[in-house]
Amino acid sequence: MLTMAPELAGGPGFEKILCRMIEQTPGGIMLVDCEHVVKFANPAARQIMGVVTGGLLERHLSDLFGDNYLRMLLYQGAIPDPAMAVGLLERIPHEVRLRTAGGKERCVRVEYIGAEEQEAGSYMCFLTDITDIQQLQLELHRRKTFFHNLIETSVDGIISADMQGKIILFNSGAQRILGYTKDEAFASLHTTRLYPEGEARNIMWRMRSDDYGGKGKLLRHELIAVTKDGRQIPMSISGGIIYDGKEEIASYGIFTDLRGIQKIEHDLRQTHKMLLHSEKMAGLGRLAAGVAHEINNPMSGITLYSNLLLERLGEDHPEAEDLHVIINETERCKQIVSDLLEFSHQTTYEQTGVNVNEQIRKALVIMRMQPLFHNIEVVTELEEELSRIWGNAIRLNQVFSNIIVNATQAMDGRGKLTIITRHRSNRDMVEIVITDTGPGIDKEIISQVFDPFFTTKAKDGGTGLGLSVSYAIVREHKGSIRVESVLRQGTSFTLRFPILQQEAPGEV
């Protein structure tokens, strides 16, 4: 019912005012008779339908909306006859897509409402052009979907919480890193449980400070995050506070798992050390080769004439003991020369496919015959079907023997020696791990164990070339060797070699 002041409603200008209101309203209005023929249409209706003045009059609704007008009138099939709908219609909106006379596609909201009883037999049709609104809604939906996918597919964890610490955003990256499901995070997870005790308060303090990226921001701050099962993970967080005016309403953080980055940095440092060591060893190798060749001939002469003199004087001569010392020390010098030549790669060796397990077993057979091995517990975990590697069996046997002998001597003949072989790096590498339970190596000198002439053994206990030669042989075979040690617990040597691609695993 139209509400208006009585003096105006009954005045002569009432109809004129009402007509002007209908003419100027931005919504389309049509009066339709019981035959569903348009009897009146305001300018807005004509504009929405895209027709010229008068172009809607006397047109049937089926011409304007097609069969949709029946579906709209017979809402959910409640009224079987369109004629019966007049006077009974509820104002139920329907959205229809139609092509105007100008060829443009529009989306129009159509509402029907029955006329008053005195005008029964006709009804009103209200039209609202919602094309722009729908386009905005579609664009909003696209953007929402885009940002949702952007957040969900991020490898980083993205978390947001209200100012009481209740989680309101917990993406897939956060679930993967921290171990909580989204339901668990939304239901009961408080932000303080994501960090060690007191750290959540420190993070908010930094976000409110001007010193960590500006007020309300926190840029690339490293911290420890706590997973669902209690593990502590190194993280880098960038985040901030979300404001509504000056009021803090939420906080957010983007968490980057630093474990992979730290591993890469560690590997790069190790590679750099290995390159420096290789350069140093190459230079020392050239020097060693020159020295070995220069002293080899004099040592041979000393040995020869010492033996001749001993034969001439006899074993009973007072100087015989001194001659034995000269001969023994000369032999020791010749062994050093031999090691120097090995270290400098002055000889060439035939290479073929090598069964690592077989060479380790051979080395152990020989070692077990030595008295120092009698009280050593040897544990072997050799992977069956282990791939072959390309190299020289004799030289690789020398490497394994050197490391095993060093481990046995470090344990002073009593302890446990564990040898493991297995595949690594998607079966592209063969790994050998030799571990002892000896006293370990101090971290201050562990970086020197592969240096020539460096030894931790007592005087006359070794030349200090065994591990240097082993290192050179491993590098010669395109492999790597790494040592790890814990004082009073033991030492572990890890060797890796690329597999021989042309031969099947386990081939003899």
Number of domains: 4
What Rg do the Cα atoms give?
45 Å
CATH superfamily of the largest domain: Histidine kinase-like ATPase, C-terminal domain
Q: In whole angstroms, how far apart are the ends?
A: 101 Å
Question: Spans of 5+ residues with little confidence (pLDDT < 50)?
Answer: 75-80, 82-88, 504-508
| Discrete helix count | 15
| Residue share in β-strands | 15-25%
CATH topology of the largest domain: Heat Shock Protein 90
* Major beta-sheet overview: 5 strands, antiparallel
Widest β-sheet, arrangement of strands: 2-1-5-4-3
Task: Return the average pLDDT rounded to an integer.
Answer: 81
What would your notes on this structure say?
There is one protein chain. With 508 residues, the protein is of the alpha+beta class. It folds into four domains: 6-134, Beta-Lactamase (2-Layer Sandwich); 154-257, Beta-Lactamase; 261-347, Helix Hairpins; 349-508, Histidine kinase-like ATPase, C-terminal domain (Heat Shock Protein 90). It has helices at residues 6-9, 14-24, 43-49, 61-65, 68-73, 82-85, 131-152, 172-178, 182-188, 199-208, 259-313, 320-343, 356-367, 393-410, 466-476, and strands spanning 28-33, 38-41, 94-99, 105-114, 122-129, 157-162, 167-170, 217-226, 232-244, 247-257, 352-354, 376-382, 389-391, 415-424, 429-436, 480-486, 490-498. The strands form four sheets. A five-stranded antiparallel sheet has the order 2-1-5-4-3. It has a five-stranded antiparallel sheet with strand order 7-6-10-9-8. The radius of gyration is 45 Å and the shape is elongated. Mean pLDDT is 81; it is low at 75-80, 82-88 and 504-508.
